[in-house]
Design brief:
The complex is a heterodimer of chains A (384) and B (389).
Chain A lengths: L1 E4 L6 H12 L17 H13 L3 H9 L3 E6 L2 E8 L7 E6 L12 H6 L8 E6 L19 H11 L5 E5 L2 H12 L4 E6 L16 H17 L1 H8 L1 H8 L3 H14 L13 H14 L7 H9 L3 H10 L3 E9 L9 H7 E8 L7 H4 L1 H12 L7
Parallel strand pairs in A: 4-5, 4-6, 6-7, 7-8, 8-9
Antiparallel strand pairs in A: 1-2, 2-3, 3-5
Helix pairs in contact in A: 5-6, 8-12, 10-11
Chain B lengths: L5 E3 L5 H12 L17 H13 L3 H11 L2 E6 L2 E8 L7 E6 L13 H4 L3 E6 L17 H16 L5 E5 L2 H12 L4 E6 L16 H17 L1 H8 L1 H10 L1 H14 L6 H4 L2 H14 L2 H13 L9 E9 L10 H7 E8 L7 H4 L1 H28 L4
Parallel strand pairs in B: 4-5, 4-6, 6-7, 7-8, 8-9
Antiparallel strand pairs in B: 1-2, 2-3, 3-5
Helix pairs in contact in B: 1-2, 5-6, 8-13, 9-10, 9-13, 10-12
The chains are: A alpha/beta (384), B alpha/beta (389).
Chain lengths: 384, 389
């Protein structure tokens, strides 16, 4: 593996081009200004104005360049990742995997807490890769890539010299982390997830308890009311992507809706993300031009449902994941699985219902996530 | 009192066209380059079309052509300024015919049939509330689609003074026609439709025959595979609309994906000229109405106006085109909600029948209303023949 330090130095010309697009953003006339039918038109106007007049990309860029970014060539593609070494006698390596619609920035606030804990015994070596098709990782070279990300991560960790490591994730990150535990059980000391990977709900067991049935019914009504984004992303990624990669205001509207809707913010997105943080997330997609390619995991999921994916799933599900698993569950996340549901698929050793926080837990409640990670992995470190 | 309609000609300001050209010039393509329509709108097709839109497509000529072919007016109906095509009849006492388009098309859906239909009818083609030069309309939260139908009904009666008229429509136009026939049966001679309306998808499959269930299942599975556009528009239209309003390539891709899915040949060039496709996209672009047009999906979902229990008790003609989603429905299913007096299964064509198969479509509309006249005349004669007591 060849790895190089990576820094962002966006051309002035590209920033000027973006500013020109923002200055001429043509938003639709709207008769209502709330969040009921998607991103609030009034909020979008404020955000676009702040993006042009208040947001300082060069300052943000400098900050991101302090995060320890690298680019590695692996399996014929490029993986972009953050790598920070822990300050302690024997840091435990951990790979953190993000999801949609965010990026490695999900972990910006969590990384320092893991690298520099109050007790140096709790330190982690942190690796945060960007999913294929996201940020500065190359786009997937073939369909079905999302099902192979775990192998890519394992290669990355191995190349970095880590033979035993921990893993954490949410959203697509929990799917990848589950695969990691299934395919590389010897290397993975434990997995820590903020949700039960959602696709398990596609197959309803005959012996579901009332709690589980209620959970599955909630997922179904959530999909009806909120899940259209996943279906369009899974069936028409390019049609939607044509829109997201040509219009920064449009990209912001598509992404920010989810950041608002899925965070614990009582409807006021700025309680969970400052305007600068929202724009940072959008900028990662815009500058890397990954509005379309980031949708491909959804396409993979939709199109795998008939074939290989099912076979693999059946094979996998014959046994639970044997690697110790912890779940930190946040009250405003998308779904609220009963523990028995998680136990069908995982060897659950820790179950932590959290007092506050939503889907972007590592960003919204970094202290709660850090504490839970430390406690869960403390007894597992002795084996590493 | 009602003000008389004023004349309307499309004339897009130079600055709007200049701005559009800047946007087309700077098109920023996504990285998904693989060929074909599997991932969405075909990249090669769209690149060509955007190139042509930018440097070949003669908007000023097209605009003049549309104005010439489809003389337009605008009038205030039920508190809303409605844009509509109005073509004077070629013969006296012609039946007024209201032609209703759907999404994502426009009054141009009927561009290839208006002249033919004007031989028999006084033709009125409105831009639906929320669409084109009618523009965004604040509709009632309760049954907003019924509110739209009422606006168009008032256009025909209060503004244009018609007492009796016919309606033809497809897609959203089918639903609007049915609502008008339900609400104002005394004014509607009959309605001619190319589909049963989206509400029949809610039919309880336990109450229907095997063939009907098979068709409903086919429609449903097609919707799962190809209906995500509608799910987004019905639940989060305002998260999507800003991109489509800001980017002409985004708008074109979103609309063409539908025209491709719903055309007969699966090859856009075989079904539509590029000028015709761009004319339709231009209506959405220059009026900046993609958001308000999609909002109908959201509003109707929250408070539907039609259910599978409604029965339209006016004569209905159905012209059914084989490549409509689900294919041609069983007549039995249509008869559950409609008084079907004419049933035509067409050999070719699809969702945009009036554009793809204009001759067959226009002939069927004429035949249907001729048949109604004959029925009415026969009834009149029967009354005259009745012996007096």
């Amino acid at each position: 593996m060849t790895a190089h330090p990576f820094e962002l130095h966006i051309d002035d010309a590209e920033l000027a081009e973006l500013t020109a697009r923002l200055a001429t953003a043509r938003l639709p006339p709207e008769l209502v200004d709330d969040w009921s039918a998607g991103t609030s038109p009034a909020f979008l106007r404020q955000l676009v104005a702040h993006w042009q007049h208040g947001y300082d990309w060069r300052a943000r860029e400098a900050e991101l360049n302090g995060m320890g970014q690298f680019i590695a060539e692996l399996r014929g593609g490029v993986v972009h990742y953050i790598h920070q070494r822990g300050n302690g006698p024997s840091p435990l390596p951990i790979v953190l995997t993000h999801g949609y619609p965010d990026s490695f920035l999900r972990f910006r606030k969590l990384i320092p807490l893991l690298v520099d804990p109050p007790d140096p015994e709790d330190a982690f070596d942190v690796v945060v890769p960007s999913l294929p098709g996201y940020a500065f990782s190359s786009e997937p070279s073939r369909h079905g890539t999302i099902f192979h990300v775990a192998d890519l991560w394992h290669d990355l960790m191995t190349e970095l010299g880590y033979t035993r490591y921990a893993a954490h994730g949410g959203d697509w990150g929990s799917t990848v982390t589950e695969h990691l535990a299934r395919s590389h059980a010897i290397a993975v000391v434990g997995i820590h997830l903020t949700d039960v990977p959602f696709w398990h709900a596609f197959q309803k067991p005959h012996d579901a308890s009332p709690d589980e049935r209620a959970y599955l019914a909630n997922i179904e009504s959530w999909q009806q009311a909120e899940g259209a984004y996943a279906i369009i992303q899974g069936t028409r990624p390019r049609t939607l992507g044509d829109a997201l990669d040509d219009s920064p205001a449009g990209l912001a509207a598509w992404l920010v809706e989810k950041l608002q809707r899925w965070s614990d913010c009582d409807g006021d997105v700025e309680r969970a993300f400052t305007k600068d943080e929202l724009i940072d997330q959008v900028m990662i997609y815009w500058l890397s031009r990954t509005g379309a390619s980031s949708l491909l995991p959804y396409y993979d999921l939709v199109h795998a449902s008939m074939g290989r994916w099912i076979l693999e799933k059946v094979k996998d599900l014959l046994s639970r994941v044997k690697v110790p698993a912890a779940f930190a569950l946040f009250p405003r996340d998308l779904s609220h699985p009963p523990r028995a549901w998680a136990e069908r698929f995982f060897h659950v050793e820790r179950w932590s219902p959290m007092p506050r926080g939503g889907h972007f837990a590592a960003h919204e409640e970094p202290q709660l996530v850090a504490e839970d990670l430390r406690e869960f992995f403390r007894p597992l470190r002795t084996f590493s | 009192m009602t003000a008389p309609p004023e004349g309307f000609r499309i004339y897009v300001a130079d600055r709007v066209l200049d701005d559009l050209h800047v946007r087309l010039q700077r098109t920023r393509w996504s990285r998904l380059e693989s060929p074909g329509w599997t991932l969405g709108t075909d990249r090669a097709y769209l690149r060509d079309l955007i190139g042509y839109w930018h440097s070949g497509y003669p908007w000023r000529e097209r605009e003049a052509l549309i104005n010439e072919l489809m003389p337009q007016r605008r009038a205030r109906a039920h508190g809303v300024d409605v844009h509509f095509v109005h073509i004077a009849p070629r013969r006296p006492r012609a039946l007024p015919l209201l032609l209703l388009h759907g999404w994502p098309d426009s009054f141009l859906r009927y561009r290839k049939v208006v002249r033919e239909l004007a031989l028999d009818f006084e033709v009125i083609v409105p831009s639906l509330p929320g669409f084109g030069f009618t523009g965004p309309v604040e509709l009632s939260a309760t049954q907003p689609t019924r509110h739209s139908a009422e606006i168009l009904y008032r256009l025909m009666t209060d503004v244009l003074g018609f007492d009796r008229f016919g309606i033809a429509g497809g897609d959203g136009g089918s639903v609007l026609a049915q609502i008008m026939a339900l609400d104002h049966p005394e004014n509607i001679t009959g309605i001619h439709l190319t589909d049963l309306g989206w509400h029949v998808g809610g039919t309880d499959v336990h109450d229907v025959t095997h063939a009907e269930r098979r068709w409903l299942d086919a429609v449903k599975s097609q919707f799962v595979a190809d209906g995500a556009y509608a799910m987004v528009q019905a639940t989060r239209p305002r998260s999507l609309a800003p991109a489509l309003a800001d980017s002409p390539v985004a708008l074109a891709s979103w609309i063409l994906d539908r025209f491709h899915s719903w055309s007969d040949a699966g090859d856009l060039d075989k079904s539509f000229s590029r000028d015709d496709l761009l004319d339709n996209i231009m209506i959405y672009w220059v009026s900046n109405t993609i958001s308000s047009s999609m909002f109908g999906y959201y509003a109707d979902r929250r408070s539907p106006s039609l259910t599978p229990h409604d029965y339209v008790d006016r004569p209905v003609g159905l012209a059914l085109f084989p490549k409509e989603p689900g294919g041609i429905p069983p007549r039995r299913l249509a008869e559950r909600t409609l008084d079907v007096v004419r049933w035509t299964e067409m050999p070719h064509g699809s969702h945009f029948a009036a554009l793809e198969e204009p001759d067959r479509y226009a002939a069927d509309v004429r035949e249907f209303f001729r048949g109604l006249r004959a029925r009415a005349d026969a009834r009149k004669e029967a009354r005259h023949d009745r012996p007096s007591v």
